[in-house]
Amino acid sequence: MNALIFDRDLLRRRRDRAASRVAALAEVLAPAAEALLDRLDDTTRRFSSALEIGGRGVVAPMLLARGVARVVSLDLSAAMAGRAGGLAVAGDEEMLPLAPESFDLVVASLSLHMVNDLPGALIQIRRALRPDGLFLASLPGLGALQNLREALVAAESTLRGGASPRVSPFPELRDMAALLQRAGFALPVADAQELPLAYRSAMGLIADLRAAGEQNTVLARDGRTPPRALFPLAFAALEERLPIPATLPMLMLTGWAPHDSQSRPARPGSANARLADALGSQEHSAGEAVPLPVPRKR
Question: Quick one: pLDDT at residue 177?
Fold first, then answer.
């Protein structure tokens, strides 16, 4: 059983509160979603029924504009799911309330990074896809909010002699393709892309995190009231050089529900042509001495 990292009930309550002000983040959320949905342009497949997870009212309209006839928006928060304006479902990514093979496209834009059991969630998403259905996801990657994390750690260490986690942990790119493959996706691809962001003040950064419902939900967080000087000290360090860089590293995931029509790697030894013939060279068996060319005189 996976260890619990995030307080999902706290996350739901914070997303409920954020639903009324998340529209202010369109300038951040829309480019992030576009970067993910650009991958639809790389396939000739057309999709009729899509599930978008945690799109905060941004992803569903983009899918409809791309010709997807039916889009269902799912979010841990009912208020946030309802922002998309269409079919809305309040549901937990860890226990998806979906019948098998319900959709031919699933999109999760910056919404799966606070799931305790990400491998389990990916398995459920794959089961919700019809054969040859496509899964697209982006997650904030390792290094996101690193300057905020370091400023808070330094300030709390100065004031208390130690620090508790105040910024969520983020996944690493090297783990993502393996997770997709483990969940049963075919043709898994994981790559990275950056969204450049900058803030004129530390409070501007914090306000955007609150508007997105992205405050700290780590179960190991310190429940005590923080020292009064903690945030002023950390924010002063952040604002030593303005604007504050807050580039968002995004891990971009692509995977397909298996289908007989998909290409597969050939079996070892099944080739019916020799590489040497294609290159016009002489083939030598393993261990055979290869004659060296005779040096030419000048």
Answer: 92
